[in-house]
Write a structure and sequence with these properties.
The chain has 162 residues and is of the alpha+beta class. It is built from 4 helices and 6 strands, in the order αββαβββααβ. The protein is elongated.
Length: 162
């Protein structure tokens, strides 16, 4: 009887282990560009997201930027923590980021802060294989200005000097 119980427990634990291994999502390390504590430059931060294709990875990275890294004192938040304040789709190797009014209304004002926000998004998304540039829309429309300083009709490429 003991041998049967031991054998059943061994089989049960093996099955639980196999099921647990199958449900694990494979992750990958990615760089997200965020603003330093002095709000002077962008710094790369490594984080892990589930492995996925380019557009899905871009969507996950936008969510990471929105969620932020508030627990890290070396990083400041520029993108408001408002769910769905931005969305992204990839068209012909260009990420099209749509910004909602609720983000604009809650974003700090200033030319340098606007530039840091734009390049935080651009530099993060262009880390994704298959994305070469970023274009912005506001509520689905191409507009001249984002917060009033930068020309948003252009296509943005990674800027490592930020």
């Amino acid at each position: 009887m003991r041998k049967i119980m031991f054998l059943l427990m061994l089989i049960a634990s093996t099955v639980v282990f196999i099921i647990g291994c199958q449900n694990r999502t494979e992750t990958e390390c990615v760089k997200v560009y965020v603003v330093d504590a002095q709000m002077m430059q962008l710094i790369p931060v490594s984080t892990y997201i589930p492995k996925c294709d380019g557009e899905e990875k871009a969507k996950r990275l936008i969510k990471v930027l929105i969620k932020g890294f508030d627990e890290n004192p070396k990083i400041r938040r520029l993108i408001p923590d408002i769910p769905n304040c931005m969305s992204v789709e990839v068209v012909d190797r260009c990420a099209v980021v749509d910004i909602k009014n609720k983000m604009l209304e809650n974003h700090p004002d200033g030319r340098s802060l606007e530039k840091l926000t734009v390049y935080s998004i651009v530099n993060t998304l262009t880390e994704v294989e298959g994305i070469d540039c970023v274009r912005f829309t506001v509520n689905g429309e191409v507009t001249k200005k984002f917060m009033g300083y930068m020309d948003m009709k252009q296509v943005f490429r990674k800027n490592t000097l930020m």
